[in-house]
Write a structure and sequence with these properties.
It contains 8 helices and 4 strands; from the N terminus they run ααααααβαβββα. It is an alpha+beta fold and 182 residues long. The longest helix is centred in the N-terminal third of the chain and has 20 residues.
């Protein structure tokens, strides 16, 4: 819970700073780049989040990895994280920033799970149809979940639309079990 509060505070501050500078979209892209770079280099991530490493050394590494590649707002933000010893919250802050930015732009977040990967064309069509049915603009995230066996599950806020084969089999099983008892 504490982590979520910290992440939201930093994300809110970053959202305000990036919006004021007019580079929110760039900062969002920068954070995705920073996260993917750190994920691809486990030693860099371990260095970045380690409380034993001197903040000055961390700033030098940040500058060498991201200097000239990310917006000034993003570099300042990373520096603040290091100064305040909040580096380990980077992923939560980035997720919170995405959520807040989507809300600010009127987008509703949707998580779409399928049993097999959908290509970009099918994803776009699916989101288009879903937006038309719901009457809302969506920021969709697609995930593959082989346990579904087929079909799709959509989560929008607290609402779940379950059109998976797994769920249909569960319903059929429950009906058959109920019929056996009669």
């Amino acid at each position: 819970m504490r982590e979520a509060i910290i992440a939201r505070r930093y994300a809110t501050a970053l959202l305000e700073a990036a919006s004021a500078a007019g580079n929110l979209d760039w900062v969002r892209a920068d954070l995705a780049f920073v996260r993917s770079t750190l994920a691809a280099r486990p030693e860099a991530r371990a260095f970045f989040v380690s409380p034993r490493i001197n903040p000055g050394a961390k700033k030098n590494v940040i500058q060498s990895l991201f200097g000239g590649r990310v917006e000034r707002t993003t570099m300042s933000f990373l520096t603040v994280l290091v100064d305040r010893r909040r580096e380990s919250y980077l992923d939560e802050i980035a997720d919170s920033l995405e959520h807040l930015a989507n809300l600010a732009s009127g987008l509703t977040e949707a998580e779409i799970r399928t049993a097999v990967p959908m290509d970009a064309t099918w994803q776009a069509r699916f989101v288009e149809n879903l937006q038309a049915k719901l009457g809302r603009r969506l920021a969709a995230t697609f995930r593959v979940d082989p346990d579904l066996r087929g079909g799709v599950v959509v989560r929008i806020g607290d609402t779940v639309y379950d059109g998976s084969i797994k769920r249909r089999l569960e319903i059929m099983h429950a009906r058959l079990a109920g019929a056996e008892r009669s």
